[in-house]
Amino acid sequence: MTSRPWREWGAAAGERGTAVAEFRAELPASLGSARQARAAVREALAAWGLDYLAGDAELLASELVANAAEHGDGQPIGLALRRVPGPRGEQSLVCEVTDTSPAMPMPRDAEPDAERGRGLSIVSALARTSGVTPSLVGKTAWFTLATPDPSAEADAEAEVGLSSCALHGAKPQQEFR
């Protein structure tokens, strides 16, 4: 695996859709490339303090890389991760997997007993957005994951706690640290 370490971008930081940080790697078109993609995603997210996105990001990136390795033309696969501001100011992760095959992926409904054919459905279900962009030299499959808004989570937890107290007739207790 050839990789360039992530780097912080200065002047562009804060512009909507412009990367704040980026990581790129070139992977071989082989069965082991999905494992290498998971390791690269884990490394980049740890460097950015976004470890909590690693599970979903590793799964989705490895699905796209495995598809590129299996259905591509044998040329190296590009993996790019970018940390960008989301539409509401939250941090988002953009993952792009590029290969040189012109063949576009076709989502399909897998039979219950089928061992294959669920990858794009998994990506679509877990990602905020996903898709495939054709180019003159192949295509780029991509997905985005959003980081949770910590203030919204705290508000939701507080509301659940207050609702639970009201339901059981109890008074909310203050948390001591």
Order of adjacent strands in the largest pleated sheet: 1-2-3-4-6-5
The domain count comes to 2
**Strand and helix order:** EEHHEEHEEH
SSE class: alpha+beta
Q: How would a crystallographer describe the biggest sheet? A: 6 strands, antiparallel
| CATH level-two architecture of the largest domain | 2-Layer Sandwich
* Total DSSP E strands: 6
Q: What percentage of amino acids are in beta strands?
A: 25-35%
The radius of gyration is 20 Å
Oligomer: single chain
- The residue ranges in which pLDDT falls below 50 over 5 or more consecutive positions are 1-16, 162-168, 170-177
CATH level-1 class of the largest domain:
Alpha Beta
The CATH homologous superfamily name of the largest domain equals: Histidine kinase-like ATPase, C-terminal domain
Q: How far apart lie the N and C ends? A: 46 Å
Shape: globular
Helix content: 25-40%
Helical segment tally?
Answer: 4
Mean pLDDT: 78
User: At the third CATH level, what is the topology name of the largest domain?
Assistant: Heat Shock Protein 90
